[in-house]
Design a protein that fits this description.
The complex is a heterodimer. Chain A is an alpha/beta fold. In chain A, 22% of the residues lie in helices and 26% in strands. Chain B has one domain: Mth169, Chain: A. The radius of gyration of chain B is 16 Å and the shape is elongated. The chains are: A alpha/beta, B alpha+beta. At the A-B interface, loops of A face α1 of B.
């Protein structure tokens, strides 16, 4: 299986993602944002970081970069596109995913492990994961998901909520909402479920000695599902 | 010609920075400040002498890049 990780100026989780993808069997290639075309891939990843210094709005400049047209074409033809953290912000700025990630409710940069509840397994990203709750890492200043009421109704009706912040038992209530995100949303799909954007970093949880292994479950499932 | 654009959060959208500024002002003997909404200001020089054309271009810029219409409104001055 071939994957491509796009590097923007200011990306900083691109190499972690490269290590994670390779560890679980992907043949990964790094693609520069100013390239015109993406090499043949089964999966495209927009990594975390601070593309273009978060100027204007997080992800807005990257959302207009040269490579993005190829990413949009790939996504619209049904290809799997995964955006983590800043990658999620870029996906909303391109319009591939609805809504926007606003500044955290209490104006703080949050860097900690959180639990997320898998809300929909009828897709390639979570299909064979046996657990219902994963422990993953978040590190962001703008992770407060927001969309209009109409959009919220539409993403709920279409099963587009992928993961929500919760406690270790899976209670995804306001008490377990780290950043003020609407409905505790930590990640969403597009309608066809081939695009996933989420704030938590699975690539940071692939080593039992350093962090944890719930990220491993994510990548193991991904390579099996493709 | 020069076009000025102001981008602000839509009414009802949470503005935590505006709130923090308001509270600070309140603590600085500006107790009568009841709300602050923070926004962005753009000073754009366009090589175009026709005002209508320049403003319609600015409008496109707002829709496509300068504002995110999910949460923001824009005003061209």
């Amino acid at each position: 299986m071939k994957s491509s990780v796009i590097i923007f100026p200011g990306s900083n989780c691109d190499r972690d993602m490269d290590v994670a993808l390779k560890k679980f069997g992907f043949e990964n290639q790094m693609v520069w944002h100013n390239d015109a075309k993406i090499p043949k891939s089964d999966l495209i990843v927009l990594p975390g970081g601070f593309s273009y210094g978060d100027y204007l709005r997080c992800g807005s400049i990257a959302g207009k970069s040269r490579i993005i047209k190829s990413v949009i074409d790939f996504a619209n033809s049904g290809g799997l596109v995964l955006g983590i953290c800043n990658g999620f912000q870029i996906l909303t700025e391109t319009g591939l995913l609805p809504g926007i990630l606003q500044q955290n409710k209490y104006l703080n940069f949050i860097c900690k492990n959180v639990f997320v509840k898998i809300k929909n397994k009828e897709n390639k990203y979570f299909k064979k994961i046996k657990k219902e709750v994963l422990e993953l890492h978040i590190a962001h200043n703008e992770g407060n998901y927001f969309c209009s009421n109409d959009e919220l109704k539409s993403i709920e009706d279409n099963g587009q909520i992928a993961v929500t912040y919760c406690d270790h038992k899976g209670n995804d209530d306001e008490k377990n909402n780290p950043n003020g995100a609407l409905k505790n949303i930590a990640g969403i799909f597009n309608k066809n479920k081939n695009i996933l954007g989420m704030m938590p970093h699975p690539e940071r949880m692939i080593d039992p000695f350093l962090s944890g292994e719930d990220g491993s479950l994510f990548f193991e499932n991904l390579i099996e599902s493709l | 010609m020069k076009v000025k654009v102001i981008v602000t959060l839509k009414k009802g959208v949470l503005d935590p920075q505006g709130k923090a500024i308001q509270q600070t002002l309140n603590g600085m003997a500006f107790g009568n400040v009841s709300e602050v909404r923070q926004g962005k200001f753009f000073d754009i020089e366009i090589n175009e002498s026709d005002e209508t054309k320049a403003k319609s271009q600015a409008e496109e810029m707002c829709k496509k890049l300068l504002a995110n219409l999910v949460i923001e409104d824009y005003k061209i001055l």
